[in-house]
Design a protein that fits this description.
Mean pLDDT: 89
Shape: globular
Strand order of the largest sheet: 1-2-3-4-5-6-7-8
Helix content: 40-55%
Order of helices and strands: HHHHEHEHEHEHEHEHEHEHH
Distance between the termini: 26 Å
Low-confidence stretches: 303-308
Length: 308
């Protein structure tokens, strides 16, 4: 099981230094990370939307240790929104945020994260788009859901993410599948103990389908975060059974993974949103992409050997 090992390495400063210095790293990182700054990502957004795709933008970086860093993360999103304003793309270009970037893990972190994320959500609404709160490890979720509930009082379009591998998620899905809600379901990409999460891939897939069925039969707007062809097919069938039109749910996939599938789904009339990360603090995000799919790790290893 390589996944847990890679996830453990994502927290290792020693591994961070080693991987950052590896000759083939940049080639692989460039596959998953759209660039280092706003100037890099804006042309990618314009191109994607011009091809019938939609995007959600993530400024990568999670290891926040000071309130000043949290404020800088907030400002990075505000800069992004300012640039998006002139593009007039509306909800075709939304944002995804991790509350850890906004200071959630610091002293008084719940209040600090809410104070930092609120102006981002407010600014996004002002240009006709929205924000989705990403899920992180299970210890952060009660805070994330509470912040989500608070933000929805003024900005009901604010979305959130649920993770199929957690035992709690079916109950969370039932609570969230209400009119006006936007919920992204993913399998989960953090190292979680067996006391709170399924460890077997088959069990995780079964949970994903059960939870997705709850979302499809509910009154909210499901966002299907998966690259798995079988789960995509099941999602389409569940949507059909629930009587959902093509604009009443959407698929979401990562930038750099199964790009042909992005285009295929969009051509069939589906809303297809590409999760597009950018920024200089790419390490944690990159390692989770390797952990999610062994083929990504093999691609990375070959690149290092080729460039070494």
């Amino acid at each position: 099981m390589l996944g847990p090992v890679i996830l453990a390495a994502s927290r290792s400063d020693r591994m961070r230094r080693f991987i950052s210095a590896a000759p083939g790293t940049k080639q692989v990182v460039d596959r998953f990370i759209a660039g280092e700054g706003v100037d890099d990502v804006v042309p990618i957004v314009v191109d994607a939307c011009g091809r019938g795709l939609e995007v959600t933008l993530d400024v990568v970086g999670e290891d926040i240790t000071t309130p000043e860093q949290a404020a800088a993360a907030r400002d990075a999103y505000l800069e992004l929104i300012e640039r998006l304003k002139d593009l007039g793309l509306g909800t075709k270009a939304e944002m995804s945020v991790k509350l850890s970037m906004f200071g959630q893990a610091l002293e008084g972190g719940h209040e600090l994260a809410l104070a930092n994320v609120r102006p981002v959500v407010e600014a996004a609404a002002a240009i006709g788009t929205t924000v989705t709160l990403d899920a992180e490890d299970h210890t952060t979720l009660d805070s994330m859901f509470a912040i989500h509930e608070e933000l929805r009082k003024d900005f009901p379009q604010t979305g959130c993410v649920i993770q199929a591998y957690l035992f709690r998620t079916e109950d969370d899905a039932r609570r969230l599948a209400v009119a006006g809600s936007r919920v992204r379901i993913v399998k989960g990409a953090y190292k979680e103990p067996a006391s709170v999460a399924y460890q077997d891939k088959g069990e995780i897939d079964k949970a994903y389908v059960r939870i997705l069925k709850v979302l499809m039969e509910g009154d909210g707007y499901p966002m299907i975060g998966s690259h798995d062809p079988r789960l995509i097919s099941i999602s389409q069938e569940l949507a059909r059974r629930a009587g959902r039109k093509l604009d009443e749910y959407e698929f979401q996939m990562l930038y750099g993974i199964r790009s042909d599938e992005h285009v295929r789904l969009a051509a069939e009339g589906h809303r297809m949103r590409v999760y597009t990360a950018y920024g200089t603090d790419w390490y944690g995000y990159f390692m989770r992409r390797l952990a999610e799919k062994p083929a990504n790790l093999l691609f990375f290893a070959r690149s290092i050997l080729t460039k070494g």
